[in-house]
Design a protein that fits this description.
By secondary structure, the protein is an alpha+beta fold. Helices cover 32% and strands 27% of the residues. The strands form three sheets. It has a four-stranded antiparallel β-sheet. The chain has a three-stranded antiparallel β-sheet with strand order 1-5-4, covered by helices on one side. Strands 2-3 form a two-stranded antiparallel ribbon. Helix 1 runs antiparallel to helix 2. The longest helix is centred in the middle third of the chain and has 18 residues. It starts with 15 loop residues before the first strand and ends with a strand.
Length: 147
Amino acid sequence: MQQTYNLFENLSNDSKVWLYLAERKLSNGEVEHISAVLEEFNATWSAHGKKLNSATNVLFNQYIVLAVDESTEIASGCSIDSSVKVLKSLSSTLNVDFFNRMNVLVYNEAQFQMFPYSAIRKNNGLFYLNPLVTKLADLRNNWLIES
């Protein structure tokens, strides 16, 4: 079972991707708030004074995706730190953890459900969104994988 996610059409397949999974499904209002904050952040996101060719999105009311096309400008440590600062602020404001890397979203009967990452190894045949994706090409074409 493979799905394709046509995201960030203006960015190259080699673009760097960061994924942040919310510990719970977000309300539509929370997604709107996050989208507005990320749009503002994305408009000014830069590395060493140079604007990053970047994009952001909230998927499935649970996954925040940040992407930077590093063929034009590489995201520096400071620019990455600034994105983490924005996510930590959102986490505090919305009272939701985006930094627990021990959970994954599993595709189950036409919907996504949160599972502990450790449960994936115990349940063969589950399809889940790979939290280890780091390139946009993999997010677009190989994000949903089978355990």
